[in-house]
Predict the structure.
Amino acid sequence: MLDILLFGALPYVAMVLFLVVSVRRYRYEPFSFSSLSSQFLETRRLFWGSVPFHVGILAVFFGHLTGFLFPRELVLWNRVPVRLLVFEVTGLAFALLVLFGLSGLLWRRLTTSRLRVNTSPADLLVHAMLFFQVLTGLDIALRLRWGSTWFAEALAPYLRSIFLFQPDVARMAEMPLSVKLHVVGAFFFFAAFSYTRLVHILVAPVPYLWRPLQVAIWNRARPQNPAA
Amino acid sequence: MDVRAQVSMVFHLDKCIGCHTCSIACKNVWTDRKGAEYMWWNNVETKPGTGYPSAWEDQEKYKGGWQRVEGGVQLRAVGKVRGAMTVFHNPNLPTIDDYYEPFTYRYQDLFDAPEGADQPTARPISMVTGEPMDIEAGPNWDDDLGGSPMYAANDPNLEQVSAAEREALFEVQRLTFFYLPRICNHCLNPACVAACPSGALYKRGEDGIVLLNQERCRAWRFCVTACPYKKTYFNWSTGKSEKCILCYPRLETGQAPACFHSCVGRIRYLGMILYDADRIQSALAADPDKLVDAQRGLLLDPNDPEVIAGARRNGIPDDVIASAQRSPVYRWVVEWGLALPLHAEHRTLPMLFYVPPLLPVMAKVGDTGYDTSIDDFLGTVDSYRLPIQYMASLFGAGNEGVVRYALRKQLAVRTYRRAVTAGDVDMAKADSLLAAADSNRQQADAIYHLTSIAPFDERFVIPPMHREQAIEMMEDPLTAKGFEGFGFRQRPERGA
């Protein structure tokens, strides 16, 4: 029963919350969309937290995405032991980078008085969720080794089944505890995502790369300038 | 010719008495809020001095503005590629300590303290943490400290001054200073707008006011780094950047901005100017000593029929053109050549111009008064107490010529008025001085009038801002029909 709740229902609750709340928030509370940077209050220690954390988490995120989108290709890549080792060690290194950065960020936030007064419960929730994910992820990587290979067969089908709206709960129920924790943690992460500062990921300023530098906004469409 | 309109400003530094009334007016209206306590959209600095934020002119540290590169200009530290590389930690972002930690006092302790042998005190507390603190800086911490070895001596502009001059500048009998009020320059090539990856910053097409849409700001904070004047600020509480809005809600209702309106010395002028957007690219790439002239060359004569036709073609309303024709700014900047942009070398094309100060600069090196009988009277601007190189570093992008021109003309006008009112200067001598300073009696009368006795509506020629159209930027009036007002309807609070 608990398995059905956690692996059959929770993913959809998370999905709906993630989509509905972020769209609603973007539409009706645009002012609340911000990365809430704290660099203005403390900059030196932020460097040693923010940079490793963001670099690591981006790499880990795209690693997970690769496993989900291209499981077959990943298995083929991993057939040569050296390549498997390279992939796993790289992933582990980035995860440790995340752990290092995240610890630094939390330590900084808790020990800097200017930041403590500027920390919301949601900020602490974000830290807690990320720690939980990194620690369970590291546990999987170290104790249930070679996940980049068995993931393709054992987990990718379950994830796909969620998106096909036929959740394969039975497959998930057989998984070791730390895998279950990591997956459930991820669902909670997505459910809480839109209520936190994490929404800044959704508005990452990618279009800036091809936008003209200067921006002028006219109240009304300008009349056509024949000279221009 | 691509004619556009811009609300532009002139500050006459000779008239600034450093009273900070402008700063207080702005603070009371706009930045008396949590997270904005440290912000002074308008501030007044003592020069020589390090200013606010501390040593803001030191671009080795802050890396603001544009620099010339092959085929154009490039943001100094941020922009598309370098912005992407420093988005997780911006090494050139000033922190709150570069400004100052805002503080208040525990006044209640004066009333609540238990009876004792000592007088109760109101301890200073931080407005960030609420904890007791030692006050070590403020927004005008070096006020009037024109000779201070801690502040004035660290003025980045003094790098342009020779070592001997520098030493002489700090001799007690030569000490001098003047005030520099600063607001956002509402630049034609704003670095903050170009650096904002969210597209939250923009230049308003109709009047050129640079605004920041807080609903699109995501706290990437590159605007703070990019502005060489450090006039975009980061609100640490809401996680949004903020800046001077030139009191556009006041302008749209025909009132002068709060800092302008409250100016005790009446140093401020405001009016519409017309400029040629087609020439911006070439003005940006000008050589350093041509920068000021290139920038002034962008401004168009509002009485030129060709310009008027071009303005109409671009949809600039006739009443705005008429307002531009009465603009005091065009006269100060172009006709008279008296007003100069601040730090034009950052190539943002600032639209706030300064009339360089004569009086504190002038007061003679010797111990006598002003001797107009000497042959090269106008030439004495070069022996003023503040070296001309220093003034040129501020107002001429290093070009001493434009500063010398403005000072000489002011000196000639002053002497001419002396001849008119006191009569102790020979009128013929005054005429020859005016001619030598590229002026004449008619122009001198106009300069005198606008400097000294111009009433409110000659100093502030506020163009019709067409609020009925401007409001459309924030709200479609038709969909908001029957509503009770415009603007924020949610409290601007920090998001989760």
